[in-house]
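User: Fold this; tokens only.

Assistant: Input:
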Amino acid sequence: MYINHPLYVTFDKDEIINKGIPDKDLTITKSSDSIGLQIVDIYLWITNKILSNQVLPEELSALWHFVCKGSVMDGIFFEGMERRFTEFEKILPKFEDLTEEQMKFAKESVEAHRRKVCTIMKSNPDND
């Protein structure tokens, strides 16, 4: 799915699949045996409290603000996205060079996507 996705067309296969993943089998460890897992457990517990709109003790609020640097959202590297999209655009055919068959396929794909979005929007009462 990812290998054939248009936004990843300029990536090497290794960049999409298994990048940075060791070839070793996973080892399951209890939190009590790993300081790293204990830190992750604390982070997840604090995150759950924040997402549940619960008040944190002052000490944990200070830790949260230190870890999150004032934000609870991940940043997006726009320059990287722009570079990938620009590379992708370079390999696209020019609009005037598209065949009738390609134009028909594109139109049908867009219409199918619109129908899908409309169906989802109609089935979700929160979208009123």
